[in-house]
Amino acid sequence: MRKHATNPWLVLVLICMAQFMVVLDATIVNVALPSIQKDLGLSEANLQWIINAYTLLFGGFLLLGGRAGDLLGRKRVFLVGLVIFTTASLLNGLATSSGMLIGFRSLQGLGAALISPAALSIISTTFAEGKERARALGVWAAIAIGGSAFGLVLGGWLTQSFSWPWIFFVNVPVGVATFLLALRFVPESREEGAHRSYDIAGAVTITGGLMALVYAIVKAETEGWTASTTLIFFAVAIGLIVAFVLRELRAVQPLVRLSIFRVRSLLTANLTMFLVFSGMFAMFFFNTLYIQRVLGYHPLKAGVAFLPFTAGIMVSAGIASGFAPRIGVRPVAAAGMILTAIGMLFFARMPVHGSYAVDVLPGMILASLGMGAVFMPLTLIATTGLEDEDQGLASGLFNTSQQIGGALGLAILSTIAASKTHGGSPAQLVHGFHYAFAGGAVIVLLGLAVMVALLRKRHVAKIEAIEQAEPVAA
Q1: How far apart are CA 420 and CA 439, in angstroms?
Q2: Same domain, 210 and 283
Q3: What is residue 92's three-state secondary structure?
Q4: Domain holding 269: CATH number?
Q5: Domain range spanning residue 439?
Q6: Average pLDDT of the chain, as a whole number
Q7: Number of domains, the chain
Q8: Distance CA 472, CA 474 (A)
Q9: How far apart are CA 282 and CA 39, in angstroms?
């Protein structure tokens, strides 16, 4: 049951403040890595774990975090996640060794895994389907993707103007303020009767399986897809996920009710987002390398170069939130995927002796407009036709699709780029980037093909019917 004891838009602002910290932290660290490596004396092998430790815990606990919100209370899990994330941010800034920093980054990833699905399910249970939820998810989409680009700007500025610990300290006042305001204004909701039973075995197997899968992907990128470590962890991941499925089929109160995948809209949205994020997530990585290592931009200037990307996402997410219920979520999402793929194909033409205005900006504008138009409709599709008690589970699944898809896509496309790069000269780097961007465009278009093949008008009729009924009701 939805309770509007407070203004739902105030709830949205508070939820988005927390989500902004989470997505910001996924990229803000990147531009500070050289400074962190110098100050803490990290080796190249350990440096990657500043990023990977966060990714590992974030991806591994997302599904459990989403279901925990349904069972224990979405507000409660959201607040717990905020406390963990904010405390870990403070500890990261105070870290004096590589081991401390990697450990606290893991803790930060755990906090993020509790915040993200709880936040999205709070939005879904606060705003009714139709225009109201579409507008809310438009804001959510702008924050969720735009924050990643803004993180490059803020990270560069904080690192150059102060020092790298400030990329973590900046989260502390935001986290404390959000916690206090959410404690007062965000309503609680949970699945009635959920306290009667907990699927501990299911929680252990799926969390372990997802963590093993993310770890295997990370190791594949650095050690190769056929390395023994990579293959062992892929085998462990598959074994645990199979054990989880078998457990859920027999459990009286399963962690994940597998029948939820019979909801065609949810299944299609997750498969499509998995593929789309696999293709587009690597765009940040390769564009950052091109702008800094080929065009020679310093970190702050490189971050500023991504501002048009953030602006494009915000504009298109706002437009999509108005048009999706009116003309259909499928056409809007399809147009977004096509624009994204075209933008990535523009990147695949970038020359060695290029310029930002001519060779980067046009593709950045097209890709940003496309990504903003993709994220909101797919989120709307993933959460439509579900009861409130399943919103946490749906949010956890959707976030997991993004996280695992992004990690897998980056690993695959990085491998493709490396296989085409023989040496470290700008010309050789760009040659590899071309294949990575083209591969990303193909994966995004594959996501479009999946959506067109699986999703029919009747599967999203509820989203559009509510919008069409509103003038009559008025």
Answers
A1: 13
A2: no
A3: helix
A4: 1.20.1250.20
A5: 8-198+253-473
A6: 84
A7: 2
A8: 5
A9: 28
